[in-house]
Design brief:
The complex is a heterodimer of chains A (about 650) and B (about 500). Chain A is mainly alpha-helical. Chain A is built from 26 helices and 4 strands. In chain A, about 75% of the residues lie in helices and about 5% in strands. The relative contact order of chain B is 0.09. Classes of the chains: A mainly alpha (about 650), B mainly alpha (about 500).
């Protein structure tokens, strides 16, 4: 399995070629090095999957990265079932997005730069999923964050784009702050950062507590929650979700690859990878489940009213990521990863379809200015429709199997699981609704744009539509590897992952209950689609009337619960205020500089005063001497007595 | 270790002699002077390379030692040597000086001859500081360094150069005077100027404490630690590019080096007792220095303040008093030299074109100078500790060490990486992104000479980030030796005593 090294390093080579030679040499051909590299990775990833299917796994250190006394950590690779799944997801989606970008980005002045960044991203993401230790995971973690920053701000001339990139990076740093501390805690308690020994030894920490400011905190819970902080940032969960909608400023292929299919799922991957740690803490698991469930519902409500097609899909992504965490939180890691894998295809497809629409509409994003696009771009319409059916959970399609699995596992786990099951089911109806709202408003009805735009409407070129069709196959069929026994399947996917993440320990659940949860999730999906059809096909006046009836609610959702504004008031402004008004003007300015410049000034003043004493009048000298003697005597007497 | 020439004397005196030689030239021969200065700095660098290749990493003993009596009446010796703590700084100094010569090529137009003389003299003195093993000799180099630096700021600096130069001089002088007093006391108590001998003494605790603070005064100003940092923004901002680079890359490292060479081994009990205060000051510097960057409108001033924050990491690492902290601290000193040096070079490159340091005068520079923007991005990312680049290795080890020593310190220090990302990325956005500012739309691309200076440092950013062991391996044994000294008091014999008595050895 030595050839596995090609998987990350081919894209790295693609990046180096493009960043060093792209501007002068490749120019409009810059897609070749990057696309070929990722295709090579895909081929090798398939070979690795075959090996893993035959039961081969691998844990190999390439070289020792940092050595400092007992702190030793390597650059190394762990390839097991979980990694193999991630490798396929990352390389396949990345390859299709590369191909799509050839059409989407052509004529962009930064063409070579775009492909360079895509390659760097692919490299980083692969390093992340292939790491065999926490520090290399952290490397990949930050490196994908960098690529996200560079690609969100790809059109850096736009202030909004460069703002969004910066915001993404800084918000993620808040999560990474916790994540980094978690990694440090792992080293200090277990003496290593390599997965295998950490997971072997983590049991020894059970029951240990650590004193933080007088509070005794369970050590494993603390470590798990600190790690989860990183996941909350990277996977855009409450309360660090604010960067992802803004990340839509980046080119659409980037949104599909990074902000839907791969990078944002890194948090889920990490939690699943660290399942031996999370499993030891009920508290941490419940936090994960509740954060996931609440985020799933919360983001879905925002998606209901947005008009920017990419933002709708972005909130949908946040919501779906919530499902994945929900699954992990109830111990169904396999279900979480299953959803990660199906979601990668249908969500990448949704984004690329949105990109195709934008391509036809000259960059327009407001769906209220579209309508009736079905007849102009049939391939885009049909593929997007199938993706929407898939995400809504219509039986037979990929999204159905994974989402149903999650909801069933949540229900079956009882306790907190029941609560998040309710959240997840409620989010499911909203998911179907907003997905089809998007479809109906964009593709059905009459075209509402300008005449000039209408003239321009066209289906995208083959280089873009072929990836759509291929992803569509994924959106339909990806779930077939995880058909539940209830429907005559045998859950290949869950069993494949079992050696890494185990199987969820469910309470005894009857077949009737299993049918019930499945029935409910199908029913809510159909209900959501139906309501959307009534609202946006039959009677478009209803949504407007609703918005007028409940103006407060509408504004709350339209303004995304004012979270951005809240952060502006409690983080951004205070930081700048302290910097400008307290530090610069007061502590550094008045106090320290006051002393620094004041002491010489005082000495000068003192000298000027002293000079007056030396006036040559003997009486003055004599009286000063007398005072001096008196003072000395007084001091002497105080000390002697 | 046979290298055929007294390497330390050579690298100390090569630039000094070169500088004196330049005095013989006519001030009209500017090009020749520049080439001579370049040649001297390059030869010095090449001659210093055996320090890197022939260094024995298995011993904490001083290496490449040169020793001769100098003033026998007082026991003053000409005594040079390096160990794993100091050797890398000499290499950094010889390398950075070449870059300083290159970057000043066209930007220094007044008193060219005197400038290069000052530059070469400062190089010799700096290297002298790092390899002196005699306190007397050390102090001479320490003070000698001050004068050319004072001139570089005061003569070739910006509009407020005189204020900045005097401030720099007085600040450092006050610290140095206290250190001089301490050196004299130390001489009378210890009976020698030999640094290695003095590092084996066990002085009474009260005396240790007083001497610790006296030395600390000199070193804290140099680092600079909060609250004696306010000379730094002025000095950095007003100094010419080469001056800022030398200040950032090497001069301020001497404070931290002083802690390692003097404060810890000579006054171990005092140092250990004072760690809470030093750690607190370090953490304040990290956060305070970071937040103040958010308010800066001047490019150089912002980077100068970021040095306060980065050097806070260094002192935190040192006073964490464990292997990760110390090694991280030393590595971070190198990293900071490379990265902040590079950032000042970068600012110098555009300053030569625009003569403005105001952030508001830039914008959209990525469109105008794409290659330059790429370098600046790399150094920005290194400064904010992106894994895979050098800054991460140092910061991570320091936070790890800090956390180990004092949990809260590690937590607070880690907030520094959030603030760091905020001010650096905001700076980058304002300078490089968004629409092209009219004032800069016709800037020339980088020349090959400028490219070379940045590319050199970029290599180290990646090298240390990807394979830090090349550099960390120099430190292990010396750091361990230092830790033994601090943790077990007076030398190896004490370890033995404690072991015999069955005392706890952590």
């Amino acid at each position: 399995m030595k050839y596995y090294l090609l998987i990350p390093f081919l894209p790295l080579a693609g990046f180096l070629l493009n960043i060093l030679l792209g501007r002068r040499l490749f120019r409009s051909q810059a897609h070749w090095p990057s696309t070929l590299a990722v295709f090579g990775s895909l081929v090798v990833a398939v070979m690795v999957l075959m090996d893993v299917l035959h039961g081969k796994t691998l844990n190999h250190d390439l070289y020792r990265w940092i050595i400092s006394d007992k702190f030793q950590v390597s650059v190394g690779f762990l390839i097991d079932q979980l990694t193999a799944v991630m490798l396929i997801v990352v390389t396949s989606v990345s390859f299709l997005v590369h191909v799509y970008s050839i059409g989407y980005m052509h004529d962009d002045p930064g063409y070579y730069r775009f492909f360079a960044y895509l390659s760097l991203f692919t490299f980083s993401m692969l390093m992340l999923v292939m790491a065999n230790n926490f520090l290399q995971l952290y490397f990949g973690w930050e490196a994908v964050g960098l690529c996200s920053y560079l690609l969100i701000g790809f059109w850096y001339e736009k202030k909004s784009a460069s703002d969004a990139g910066k915001k993404a990076f800084i918000v993620n740093r808040f999560g990474d702050f916790g994540f980094g501390l978690g990694v440090i805690m792992i080293f200090l308690t277990l003496g290593t950062l390599h997965y295998i020994p950490v997971f072997d030894k983590i049991n020894t920490l059970t029951g240990q507590t650590i004193n933080i400011l007088g509070l005794h905190v369970n050590l494993v819970t603390l470590i798990a929650l600190l790690l989860f902080c990183g996941a909350v940032g990277k996977s855009a969960q409450i309360p660090l979700h604010v960067w992802l909608p803004d990340a839509m400023e980046g080119p659409t292929p980037v949104s599909a690859l990074i902000h839907a299919a791969t990078m944002v799922t890194a948090g889920v991957f990490m939690v699943a990878r660290c399942n031996p740690i999370f499993n030891l803490s009920h508290t941490a698991m419940n936090v994960v489940a509740v954060v996931g469930g609440v985020t799933a519902l919360f983001a879905a409500t925002i998606a209901l009213v947005q008009n920017d097609i990419k933002r709708v899909i972005a909130y949908s992504t946040i919501s779906q990521l919530g499902y994945m965490f929900l699954a992990c939180g109830v111990g169904a890691y396999g279900a979480g990863i299953f959803h990660l894998y199906t979601h990668a295809y249908f969500k990448a497809l949704l984004f690329l379809c949105a990109g195709s629409v934008m391509h036809a509409m000259a960059g327009e994003l407001d769906m209220q200015k579209m309508g009736g696009l079905k007849k102009y771009m049939p391939v885009t319409y049909w593929t997007m429709l199938i993706a929407s059916l898939s995400i809504s959970g219509i039986p037979g399609l990929a999204g159905f199997f994974s989402k149903d699995e999650i909801l069933f596992r949540a229900y079956a786990s009882g306790g907190v699981g029941r609560f998040v099951w309710v959240l997840g089911t409620a989010a499911a109806i909203l998911t179907a609704f907003y997905s089809f709202r998007l479809i109906f408003v964009t593709f059905h009805g009459e075209f509402r744009g300008t005449e000039e735009q209408r003239h321009h409407l066209h289906e995208s070129p083959k280089v873009m539509t072929v990836p759509l069709v291929l992803l569509c196959i994924g959106a339909v069929a990806a779930g077939w590897v995880g058909v539940p026994p209830l429907l005559g399947g045998s859950e290949h996917f869950a069993h494949f992952l079992e050696p890494v993440v185990g199987l969820p320990h469910a309470k005894e659940v009857s077949h009737a209950e299993e049918w019930m949860t499945m029935g409910i999730s199908v029913a809510v999906a159909l209900a959501g689609i139906l309501i959307a059809a009534v609202f946006y096909l039959k009677n478009p006046a209803i949504p407007r009337r609703l918005a007028e009836r409940f103006p407060f609610l509408y504004r709350l959702l339209w303004n995304k619960y004012y979270v951005d504004e809240l952060y502006d008031y409690i983080v951004v402004r205070p930081a700048l205020g302290i910097a400008n008004n307290i530090i610069v003007k007061f502590t550094d300015g008045a106090i320290i500089e006051g002393i620094v410049n004041g002491v010489p000034a005082f000495i000068g003043w003192l000298g000027a005063q002293m000079r007056k004493v030396q006036d040559g009048v003997v009486e003055h000298y004599a009286s000063i001497m007398a005072v001096g003697i008196f003072v000395l005597l007084a001091i002497g007497m105080i000390f002697l007595i | 270790m046979e290298i055929g020439y007294p390497i330390l004397s050579t690298v100390v005196f090569m630039p000094i002699v070169g500088g004196l030689l330049l005095m013989l030239f006519s001030r009209k021969q500017e090009t020749l002077i520049k080439f001579v200065a370049l040649a001297v700095s390059v030869i010095t660098f090449v001659l210093s390379l055996p320090l890197f290749t022939n260094f024995d990493k298995t011993t904490h003993q001083m290496q490449f030692v040169e020793r001769a009596d100098w003033i026998p009446q007082w026991g003053v010796q000409y005594y040079l040597g390096v160990d794993g703590i100091s050797v890398l700084f000499i290499l950094l100094s010889t390398l950075i000086t070449i870059l300083c010569v290159l970057i000043s090529w066209n930007s220094i137009t007044q008193k060219v001859k005197e400038f290069y003389i000052a530059l070469l003299l400062i190089e010799g003195a700096m290297i002298g500081v790092f390899c002196s093993l005699d306190l007397f000799l050390f102090y001479i180099f320490w003070e000698a360094m001050l004068i050319p630096m004072y001139l570089i700021i005061g003569v070739w600096g910006g509009p407020r150069r005189v204020y900045a130069a005097i401030k720099f001089f007085l600040y450092t002088l006050i610290g140095s005077v206290l250190m001089l007093v301490a050196i004299v006391v130390l001489y009378f108590k210890g009976g020698t100027f030999n640094i290695l001998e003095l590092s084996k003494l066990s002085l009474p605790y009260k005396l240790q404490l007083m001497l610790f603070w006296a030395f600390c005064a000199a070193f804290a100003v140099k680092v600079p630690m909060f609250p004696v940092h306010t000379w730094l923004p002025d000095a950095h901002t007003e100094a010419p590019t080469a001056g800022s680079v030398i200040l950032a890359a090497i001069l301020i490292k001497m404070g931290a080096y002083g802690f390692l060479r003097f404060s810890l081994p000579m006054f171990p009990e005092a140092a250990k007792a004072m760690t809470p205060y030093m750690i607190a000051l370090s953490v304040i510097a990290i956060i305070y220095g970071g937040i103040v960057c958010l308010a800066q409108t001047d490019l150089k001033r912002l980077i100068a303040y970021s040095s306060v924050s980065h050097m806070g990491f260094v002192t935190l690492g040192i006073f964490a008093l464990n292997a990760q902290g110390l090694e991280g601290g030393i590595l971070q000193m190198i990293n900071h030299g490379v990265v902040t040096g590079a950032l000042f070079l970068c600012v110098g490159i555009v300053y030569d074109r625009t003569h403005s340091r105001q952030i508001a005068d830039y914008g959209g520079l990525a469109t105008v100078m794409p290659v330059y923007a790429g370098f600046f991005m790399l150094f920005t990312l290194a400064a904010i500790g992106l894994p895979g680049l050098n800054g991460f290795i140092g910061e991570f080890l320091i936070i790890l060490g800090g956390f180990k020593a004092k949990k809260l310190a590690g937590v607070f220090a880690a907030t520094g990486i959030i603030i760091g990302a905020a001010y650096m990325l905001w700076l980058y956005q304002r300078v490089f992104f968004m629409g092209v500012n009219d004032k800069i739309k016709n800037l020339e691309p980088m020349s090959f000479r400028e490219f070379l200076t940045l590319a050199t440092l970029a290599v180290f950013v990646l090298w240390i980030g990807i394979y830090p062991n090349t550099f960390l391996s120099f430190m292990h044994v010396s750091v361990q030796h230092l830790l033994d000294r601090v943790n077990y008091g007076a030398g190896d014999s004490m370890v033995a005593v404690k072991t015999i008595l069955g005392g706890p050895i952590p």
